[in-house]
Amino acid sequence: MAWWFWPLFMFVFTLLIGIISPVSGVGGGVLFVPLSTIITPFNIDFIRGAGLVMAVTSALSSAPYLIRKGLANIRIFAIVAPVMVITSVVGGWIGLWVTNAYPDGKYVIKVLLGAIILLVFFIMVSSKRIEFPEVKEEDRDSLSKKLNIWGEYYEPDLDAIIEYTTKNTPVAIVTFAIIGFVAGMFGLGAGWANVPVLNMLMGVPIKVATATSMLIITANAPAIGIYLTKGAILPFIVVPSILGITIGARIGAKVAEIIKPKFVRWLVLAILFIAGVLNIIKGLQGMQIIPPILPGV
Amino acid sequence: MEKKGPEREIRVDEMGLAFAKIMTIFTIVGIVLMVLPAIAYFMGINPYVPLTEAHKYWRLSANDFWLNVTGRKVTGYSWIFDHLDKTDCLSMIGVLILMITPLLSILAGVVKAENRTYRILLLIAALEFIASILVKSLVAVTSGAKKVVKK
């Protein structure tokens, strides 16, 4: 295969992921990394580096539009970011220690993580009213009231402006701390976990949950330093991927505004299911319980 | 049913709008600074690692890739800053700008925060962001250095 084929392929591939990303609130890495390791000839180091830059750039490209439309909530970000940034750094440190001390331990955790993601998937499948959860005044916690967490956006599906607020803020903060820790420890994106917490625990509409999750993903940007200082970010894979994801994410942000909430729900569920299954497969093949199905992981 | 659109303007926080404005500007700057030198790189103009060489080794790990193309491993940012006359290294300046864009956006939010609580929360996020960049870059540099020593 000629060298120019693969950069061109990465552009088309990431364009499609870019469209899905803002609609689902998942950074794109969860689909990009496993699929690229199977399809393309690039080493996993370059794929992971590109996946991270891509996930952050797709979030950076779509978040401003989503903020202006009232879909991504800066107040929730201001509460979640300080918690997640610090716990992800601590998680990263402990993750390095665990990897050095117990090299095979990470595979067991991957299986457990996959199981947790699938559990969240089944909870979301069986729960009702996640498109527009109802938060009554008596449900609101004192922190939500004190911080005056609110927002509004136009829902074309109902042809109405939807106003929303939050509940369970203290529990959600603790949950985000745990998510940040786990994400930092295993070098994962956290979109798969942000959306259910924002939607089911805090009670924000599903479209606001996916958009705010994109905003939270921008806080992963410091991890780019890890790959840059290893020389694992190079133009031949990153540039076509970024162009694809940027154009795709802008299309996706507009799609996110007009798309039916029910479709968003099923898209999130599908990605959760794929992420859960992929993690379990990666863990099991790492423990050599099943033969290698996914290369390079 | 015909959809009329919102009957009034959507209310959005000032700090959110300031955050979004800075994020838009620096994301565009980062992408442009990454893509323009990369176009020159893809055209074969003054590369540090020519594409014909990269093509041979992109299946290898990052460490082995650099060992094969330059004879040494990469640990730190010097491979970028020492070769800014090379189009592929210059392209990485755009990636660095993308890395710090959320920090600049948070600082814009701090300036426009509607009350002290949100100002403090965003300021903490900004400080943690800076610490995180330093820690994650240093961890990579030191772990890379250890590997070189072991070898």
Give your account of this protein's structure.
The complex is a heterodimer of chains A (297) and B (151). Chain A is mainly alpha-helical and 297 residues long. Chain A has one domain (5-286). Helices cover 70% and strands 4% of the residues of chain A. Chain A is built from twelve helices and two strands. Chain A has helices at 5-24, 29-39, 44-68, 74-101, 105-126, 142-146, 169-186, 191-201, 206-217, 224-228, 235-258, 261-286; strands at 150-155, 160-165. In chain A, strands 1-2 form a two-stranded antiparallel sheet. In chain A, helix 4 packs parallel to helix 7 and helix 8 runs antiparallel to helix 9. Chain A is globular. The two termini of chain A are 24 Å apart. The mean pLDDT of chain A is 83. Chain B has 151 residues and is an all-alpha fold. Chain B has one domain (14-150). Helix content of chain B is 73%, strand content 0%. In chain B, helix 5 runs antiparallel to helix 6 (116-150). Chain B starts with 13 loop residues before the first helix and ends with a helix. Chains A and B meet through helix 3, helix 4, strand 1, helix 10 and helix 11 of A and helix 1, helix 2, helix 3, helix 5 and helix 6 of B.
Lay out the secondary structure:
The complex is a heterodimer of chains A (297) and B (151).
Chain A lengths: L4 H20 L4 H11 L4 H25 L5 H28 L3 H22 L15 H5 L3 E6 L4 E6 L3 H18 L4 H11 L4 H12 L6 H5 L6 H24 L2 H26 L11
Antiparallel strand pairs in A: 1-2
Helix pairs in contact in A: 1-3, 1-9, 1-11, 2-3, 3-9, 3-11, 4-7, 5-12, 7-8, 8-9
Chain B lengths: L13 H29 L8 H7 L4 H9 L7 H4 L5 H26 L3 H35 L1
Helix pairs in contact in B: 1-5, 5-6
